[in-house]
Amino acid sequence: xxxxxxxxxxxxxxxxxAYYTFPSEEEEIDVRPHVIEKDLSSLLDExxxxxxxxxPITLVDIVDGDTIKxxxxxxxxxxxxxxxxxxxxxxxxxxxxxxxxxxxxxNSKLVKSGHLTLEFEQGNTRDSYWRMLAYVYVDGESIQExxxxxxxxxxxxxxxxxxxxLDQFREDESLAKKRKINIWSRAYFVTxxxxxxxxx
Length: 200
Prior knowledge:
By secondary structure, the protein is an alpha+beta fold. The chain has 5 helices and 10 strands, in the order ααββββαβββαβαββ. It has helices at 7-19, 34-46, 100-111, 143-149, 166-179, and strands at 54-64, 67-72, 75-81, 84-85, 116-119, 132-138, 141-142, 154-155, 190-191, 194-195. The longest helix has 14 residues, at 166-179. It is globular.
């Protein structure tokens, strides 16, 4: 036995039919997947295309202005930035040097600002402490170049030339020297062996 539809149900159904108009046979129904298209385009924006010579890494920790800890191909590594040197703050045999904190903070901001990748120099992949030596990039921009241009680092540890970016790095360093910024703002602070001057 069928139940009769109550008055409220009939009124609701009638209101729905009055509000919703069904398309006629001549009208085209737009069935394009708008939401899917939008989702796909936003996903494509997130895809990072890496140069063939760069390796993606995952940041684990920031050691100082020129050293970080990362996961490279699933393995924990300490990465020492190739060809640059920043003032020391964590060397047990040295004092905390001037501009060490500033270099650490700038490096920290850079490495946390995007996707990190490494590029290796043939024949120069490890230092004497077995740290990985590499050029480091954030969203394709060289972190070494930024540190040099902004006067937080000097060109150093040229052990086994030729190096792909040595000339460019020297140019970047020269710009900071001319502007006398950060490490270059104090006479005799930067030496051929490192930095001379401690935080008081």
